[in-house]
Amino acid sequence: TWQAWALYMVLAANLSEEQVLKQACPSCDATQLCNCSSMGLDFIPPGLTGKITMLNLAHNRIKHIRSQDLQQAVNLRALLLQFNKISSIDEDSFDSLGKLELLDLSNNSLAHLSPVWFGHLLSLQHLHLQGNSYRDLGGSSPFSRLRNLSSLHLGNAQFSTIRQGNFEGIVVLNKLWIDGGNLSQYEPGSLKPIKMIKHMIINLRNTNVFSAIVRDLLHSVTWLEVREIKLDIEKKSLVQNSTLPFRMRKLTFKDSSITDEYFSRIMVLLKEITSLQEIEAIDCVLEGKGEWDTREIERSGESFVETVSVINVMIPNFHLFFDLEGIESQVKKLKSLSIVSSKVFMVPCNLAKNFLSLLYLDFHDNLLGNNRLDETICKTAWPSLQTLNLSQNSLKSLKQTANTITHLPKLINLDISQNNFGEIPDACEWPETLKYLNLSSTQIPKLTACIPRSLEVLDVSANNLREFELQLPFLKELYLARNQLKTLPGAAPIPNLVSMSIRRNKLNSFSREEFEGMQVGAVHLSLMECHRSLVVSLICVLVFLVVLILVAIGHKYHAVWYLRMTWAWLQAKRKPKRGPAKDICYDAFVSYSENDSEWVENIMVRELEQACPPFRLCLHKRDFVPGKWIVDNIIDSIEKSHKTLFVLSEHFVQSEWCKYELDFSHFRLFDENNDAAILILLEPIQSKTIPKRFCKLRKFMNTKTYLEWPLEEQQQEVFWENLKGALKS
Q: Which family does this protein fall into (predicted)?
């Protein structure tokens, strides 16, 4: 891009670095936050100073970072360079950035990583290097000086090798993310220098590499998340030659697939990680039909895992799936189970009876219906369960659902929201221990004695309720939002109520009786619901203030002037560009300030109109048509004149009348791109003193020669000859 550099050098010769920076990135002017993203930049703009703390150069076309580019940005805290074309960086480019905390070089074209780049970034906490083209991290550690590093993201589609020593210098990380979809070589012990990692994400397809990495992370990582792996048969132990205690608490598989054969093996292998408490599978595929080696699983002993989450797992051959017989021994110590968005319609009763320690069960967004609910929640199943979520399933009968739930003697919290019950019976049976019930969005039209009296929290939001008359002596929280209520619930039937949500109903007013005997601690109603007339008044006042502000802004920035100018310009545009020669009545229309009238009328007019041959001049005092709108007079006079004379002075620039005259005339003159304008300077005047909105006239003064009135008499003859020559041209 030598043309771009040549253009830059030309600009730099005439502008200061600050001006170049302002032109390349306007948001950098007088601000600590400099957003230069998506500006089409080929280079880092010069002029960066110590006042800038955040520099965003993402989504540009930068290819090279030079030594001097960031030399003055010594207070930079965040530098964003992602999605450029950076392929090379001078070794000392970042040396002055000792306060930098975030560096994003992701999605560029870096073919290697140099430890020298990061050697002076002692405050760096977040480093993003993913999406480049390097195949490895080199023979040593690029991060050896980054003692404060908290999060590191690296890897790409070509990244294939991790060697011992690559992570030397890093002791503690909150997050480590490695894009290693094609990672094929991992030297054992490479990740061991990192003593603690709270959360590690690795995209991985190679099962052997997965096993080696797990062995290295047993004592350092708390949560390991593996993505895109296809788990095949692996015989080696995951804790080979490792000593207790282990640190790993949670293992997540995301966007992965597993076969029947490896499912049995992985269950056995994971039991060896005695610290593992939680397993999660998200957006995974289980290939097979449940033909697991249950004998091998059972021989390996009980699992230490307490929490299992299965979210959006697909089983292509689910119609051939076995009934999971044989894994009962593995679920006895499980305390929390979530199977979400996985098309579950039933759990076999024999299996459900073995969840002896389960306290929390989440089946939301599945296909559970009343016809199979008795099988899933049969007698003596889930004996310790306290919380059950059956929301967003296919339950249709509230009465049948309640009767089935009675099989759970310790249930406290029940969520059956977003099921289409439609009707509610007059009476139902519930577990005596039930304290929380969520019936929101279930299409029930009323509330009956079916609602258990033992409740402390009831959510019936988003239904079709028109009244609330239940006796709930223990109720503390009541959620009634998005219903059709016109009055508040009575206070006497719910004496212990502490919190009530009643937003988006049809309440218009509250009576004193509705609050009798009940202290209101915290009412969360919208302002409109409480003070409708006040809100309407405030809106009117606000609208008035907005209009007033707009009028003030319009006056300050000449909005009316712009409207009038636009209308005049549109009118002028509809007229012919220039009348035929027979319509030309004057040699020149003269635009001048009243303060300069003595010179114009007594000197210039006399000199020109008494010349031989005489010139015909149009003066507003003498030649404007009385009673005609001044705008039309100006436009008509300009159109009937061969030239237009602007007699410029400080009085002219400060005159409001002259401003309008200039405004309405310069549309016609400069839109035609001709030489009809002649500028006469009665006194020295800078173009910058002309109002900024006359941009075409300012440009005209900077690019066209004008006549200056000389004070010496001997030079005035030359002035008149030049002016007459200009009028005749």
A: Belongs to the Toll-like receptor family.
